[in-house]
Amino acid sequence: MNPVPLLHDYLIESARRVPEKVALVCGERRLTYRELDEQSNALAQGLVRRGVERGDRVLVLAENSVEAVLAFWGTLKANAVASVISPQTRADKLAYLLRDCRPAAMIADAQLAAAFAEPASAASSLRAVLTFGIVPDRSPLRRLARHASLEATLAEDRRDVAPPRRCIDVDLAALIYTSGSTGEPKGVMLTHRNMLTAATSITSYLENVTDDVILGVLPLSFDYGLYQMIMAFRTSARLVLERNFAFPADVLKRVVAEKVTGFPGVPTMFAMLAEMRSLADHDLSSIRYVTNTAAALPVKHIRMLKQIFPAARIYSMYGLTECKRCTYLPPEDLDRKPTSVGIAIPNTELWVVDEQDRKLGPNEVGQLVIRGATVMRGYWEKPEETAKRLRPGPLPGESVLYTGDYCKLDEEGYLYFVARMDDVIKSRGEKVAPKEVENALVDIPGVREAAVIGVADEVLGQAVKAFVVLEDGVHLDARTVQRECQRRLENFMVPKHVVFLPELPHTSTGKIKKTGLS
Amino acid sequence: MDITRRVREFILSNFYVTDAEGLSDADSLLSLGIVDSTGILEVIGFLEEEFAIVVEDEDATPANLESIERIAAFVSRKVSERVPEPMRSAEG
Known about the structure:
The structure holds 2 protein chains of 2 kinds.
Chain A: H1 9-17, E1 22-26, E2 29-32, H2 33-49, E3 57-61, H3 66-77, E4 81-85, H4 91-101, E5 105-109, H5 113-122, E6 128-132, E7 147-149, H6 150-156, E8 172-177, E9 187-191, H7 192-206, E10 213-216, H8 223-234, E11 238-241, H9 248-257, E12 262-265, H10 267-274, E13 289-292, H11 299-308, E14 313-318, E15 327-329, E16 343-344, E17 348-353, E18 366-372, E19 378-379, H12 383-389, E20 390-392, E21 399-409, E22 415-420, E23 425-427, E24 430-432, H13 434-443, E25 447-457, E26 461-470, H14 478-488, E27 497-500
Helix pairs in contact in A: 1-2, 2-3, 2-6, 4-5, 7-8, 10-11
Chain B: H1 3-14, H2 37-51, H3 62-65, H4 68-82, H5 85-91
């Protein structure tokens, strides 16, 4: 490995070590490390030839695919900054992103032209738009200037060597846009050092090895999905990349056929698994570990995961894009502390402070602070937002991350997530953490998912309002749900209003989108 | 109204489609970002209710649900499985 590594050295080094090993399985395609290394060289050469320079941003608009993988590593090899965007991004948000980070190039799935052609033609920063897939005659891409084919670049550009290496490890590697469940999207700036540190830390506690086969079903536009690929390539393991989790039975067949060992998921996915009638038909014994993040797991889901994956170690984790990951719960502590999100990840430090920035003791609720080399460089061109999150740390010139999350630690230093500070409901003079009420709701038999918000109330200040999704064929009324909550919660937390919905709105990363509820 | 049209109307009225006129019955609803993982559950719910069929876990595959035409073909197959032979001829 290069003595001063950059993020893409993970791919380069694996290609040197195990060139003929299959690194990526995606649909019918199987690519070795050598093929990925060479093709990403060609892509990088193509970007540089079209004027992409060190530090330029490259927007990648694609669903999980071989091309999205190549685009990410090719961008890094071109000394540029990769920003992978959800293929579901609509034209107006794309226009915002193009104005915000002013990318020099865009790599996109030609099928999505209806969404991106217009904003791309209006973006003066773009020197190239590389698309992959068939471009129909009537496609607006036919009229788009600076448009070229990614396949042609892969076939024609030099593949034996990457462009000259210009970056150092404090340069940016990625710009990850936060999913916008509050306010306008912010680009989280991550350096090579940030990402190397996070990948090293996480692979150490997951005990990843070369023989691992990691499932990549979460979108590459979501940091949790992106890191599955980074960590697989770091350990010269294999990534089984699936488009999404729309067809769970197909994904499970793939898990069985490829002998997947690592199964990263989010609560919504596990809820979908739990409802599958044919779950028992799939032999999932190859799975060595299961990870969850995005939201703390309800205890009901932990029990369910243990049933589905009896041989697997189950990791409950918590973090935010701004530092990738904060904590993980060692699987052996799951029975003892099921509601904890665990301890600081290796090479990271954390503490909890009150509003006067004083460190709090055990069981006192305050804001979580994270210190370590995983902490972002800030939000792209948003100094005010950055100043709210990054504040001086213990060493001169150091910044630590004020997460904006209410948490508490127990006597043994295990962390408990309480609420996003923006989400806390003040009802009857008490602070209500929506998460706590949601966990109680999901614990009720027949409830699949729940979201809780505060609504204005003349008497209470704010009243607790619950949105509940029931499992198929289950009938519950509001009164029953409230009664069940009374058995589980203090009175001031019991929802005053209960609304039943067929489903909850989700962000593209699987979190419940509360801005859509009222 | 034929199955293809009913499915198409459901898709257009329940999901955000950038270019409704340009959406062909053969286009992938997933690759175009029109329907996502939870959206598929909505589609399945609609099919079960609208056409009185049961969509098994094993039925939820790209081969059956990827595009409007595949959904329509799947539904007509399911409907013909559901209706016993004599009734079908009586209806038809």
